[in-house]
Fold each of these.
Amino acid sequence: MSAADRTALAASVRRYSHGSRVPGWDDAVDLDKDPAAIPDPASTPVPEELRATIERSMAKYPDRRSAAIPALAAAQRFHGYCSPEAMDQVACVMRLTPGYLVSLATFYDMFKTDDRGIHDVYVCTNISCSLCGADDVYDAMKEAARDETDVNVKPFECLGACDIAPMASVDGIYVGPLLVEDTQTIVEDLRAGRAVLEHKQLRLRRSADPDANSERFERDAPPAFEAREGGADPIREPAAGAAGPPMIGVDKSDPAMAPDPQLPRDDDPRGSSGGEPSEADSAEEKDDR
Ligand code: FES
């Protein structure tokens, strides 16, 4: 659309007296209205697994509202998206109004508030990814998904996975480092209902964090410690040579080890200047007297 078309379109949409094109934008809050209700636990059944996850999140913060995002994420994982029912369940456990949660869920792109069956492909085009070719990946991704009505391709700011740049989030699954030709595979995988680019999924990689990926990869067993009967404690009594070679005395006859005459000597009673007192020092001493 040209700039002239955009201006004409903007002019055709009416502005209200408050200056905005959104009706009711500056309507005062109705203070006589009843406050939104917090769902009643008696009439809002919450799946036990979801309740436990939300309560674990709430226990981490002094203010329970700080757990709203992880709680919504848990509800989205459980229900597939943040449905009205999911919002009610989170609100019930957190003792918040559903409206509070809706305001959060509709603000962040990673929460889905409808179930349109759209696949979200967010290609990170921030600095690390951009330096590694993200702009080409994004263009290729748009081209690959051009005829797919259910694939929503969007450029995105840093997704926090710069170590696999250039990367993308496909329905919340991080994949990378991406090549331009991977974009076609992403579309084919989505079309076929397969796991997307499985060999490039971040969640399927080994991690230095022993708790990460532990569902997929067994943790390494901790090294066995065998107490030796009558043996030395390996911490308190290291084996001979374990602490490196023994220290040797300084050879004072070595000219390289001779003390620097500019530095203070340990036995210098004045401590700082070192060497013989200068005329200036003597004059200073006299002034002090
Ligand atoms: S810049 Fe792309 S994940 Fe950080």
Amino acid sequence: MIGKGILKGMAVTAHNFVGSYFDKERLITVQYPEERNPLPENYRNFPFLVYDGKDPNAGLRCVACKICEKECPPQCIYIIKSEDKKPDYMGKPQFYPKVFDIDISVCMSCQICVEVCPFEAIKMDKEFELSRRERFDALLMRKDDLAKSNDYYRRISPTDAAEVDAKLTAAAEAAAKKKAAAPAAAKPATPATSSTSGRPAPSGASS
Ligand code: SF4
Ligand code: SF4
């Protein structure tokens, strides 16, 4: 019958419309911006730079290696490496970005910068209310805008952040173990002596 499909569709709409007054599950819209639906954990938009501790400058993980700058498909990352070094989270002196800009009007949220970073220093954010009235550099995010704490990362991406924390803790522990073992290894081995003369025992000599 002509129009049967239309009537069927309207019946479904009417059923959901009336049902939404009684069943919250049927209400799929919210009164944004007062109300917000929770974002899925894997939601992503633009990158940010992670820092450990409380101080964004001291704790910034980025060592200005520029891999992300080279790999970014639309070339929207701009980095100037420092001339001096600062200690990283393991106390190792590292360069840091004197300038780190991302033009988010160009960024296509591909996450390649995150995947190529060897230092877990750049991650994808969930912030999406970033519209600006100005056309030009208002969407150029500077290092200070991009720096966000690891606690923030743990809040927005708990699963990924826990994996990264475990990886970095294991790396720090392995480095500490290696450092502790180094002085012992550096000490010259006490030469084996013959029981009678006190001279080193020749190789292959039996007692
Ligand atoms: S998400 Fe993609 S486009 Fe955006 S800065 Fe990273 S690599 Fe570049
Ligand atoms: S964010 Fe990562 S890949 Fe990019 S410069 Fe810093 S350390 Fe290198």
